[in-house]
Every structure is written in structure tokens, then in C-alpha cells.
Amino acid sequence: MKSTIYAVLSFVALASTAPVTLVARTPPNIPSYSTAQAELGGLRVAAQGSSTGYSRDLFPHWNTVSGTCNTRETVLKRDGTSVVTDSACASTSGRWYSPYDGATWSLASDVDIDHVVPLSNAWKSGAASWTTSRRQTFANDLTNPQLIAVTDNVNQAKGDQGPETWKPVSSPPVLDFSLKKKVIEIR
After folding, report:
1. What is the mean pLDDT of each run of 10 residues along the chain (187 residues)?
2. Residue 21 in contact with residue 8, Cβ under 8 Å?
3. Nearest alpha-carbon partner for 170 in 40, 11, 1
4. Dihedral of CA 28/32/37/38: which sign?
């Protein structure tokens, strides 16, 4: 059984009345609007499963990616600009733009890495039946637009809510970010 997991995002940049010094970097492999529509159209809609048995610990995350760099540090480097790391791969300086609220940060401690499709949402959508290895792959997915650097307290306010109950606050006029829909398809 093979799983395909899509986080379908739409980023729409708006004209800014103030100068923008940092441009949002986007996660990899965001499908085009037409591709996303076609994939969504082919899905079977089912009721969300139960959260019974869910624990974040069942999704091992922040794997070592290369050397001493884990998934979190890799996303911080990917989504930031001018990121400098120490010998342990911890970000010591850089700048991060959060598309969830339009804020720009210069301390990595002000930035969280968001699972666009929350782990608990994935659990209720089929990950409860996955192996630990498969959940680990999902929680550390650097191939799809699943992980994104965002303002820490905004991510904490989102918690484990999916797009049906939580939408990012856009920071006009810099960016209108709309999480159109998240889809988990299990083949």
C-alpha cells in the first residue's frame, strides 16, 4: 500500500504599500492550481477517524538529515535567508519570513516548524494504521510542502487544528496566504 500525502496551498502575493525586505520562501513541490484541483477531484470523501490512541510521540520527528543537521534545522536553512549555523547545525543567525502572519524574525527561537497537515489530523485521516516508520517519514517530509517555518506563537495557536477550523491570519498587504484544503490520500 502506498500513501500519497498532499498539502495543497495557495500563496497569493499582494501589492505592498511598504517596502518588503524579505521574500517568503516556499516549501517544495507545491502543485499548480489545476493539478491540485484534478487530484482533489479524484479523492473519495470519508468521515474523519477517531483520535483514540493518538500521541505525537508516535510520529518520530526531527530526524538527522545530514551530519548533525536534523529536519528542523534543514527547514530553517531552506526557508530562511542568510542563515548561519554553528558546528552542531543550530542556526545562530538569519532571517525568516512567516507567511502565516507576515512577520519577519532574526532569531531561530522565534520560529517553529509547522506540520501543515497536523500530525493528529493525519492520525484521524489514516495514519493510525501506518507503521511507525511511515509516520516518521511523514513527520519529516522535506519532499512535499508539509513543513514550513512560521512564527512560533502563531503555530502554537494553530496547535493540531486542520484547515477546517484554523486559517492563518494574513498580514496585509504583504501576503494573502490561504490554506485552501489539505488532503490525505491513502492508496
Report:
1. 33 32 65 79 81 96 94 96 95 94 95 94 94 97 92 94 80 36 35
2. no
3. 11
4. negative
pTM of the model: 0.76
- Cβ proximity of 110 and 152 under 8 Å: yes
Alpha carbon distance 120, 118 (integer Å): 5
β-pairing, 104-105 vs 91-97, is: antiparallel
pLDDT attached to residue 20:
39
Nearest by Cα to 101 from 142, 146, 152: 152
Number of C-beta neighbours around residue 144 at 10 A: 18
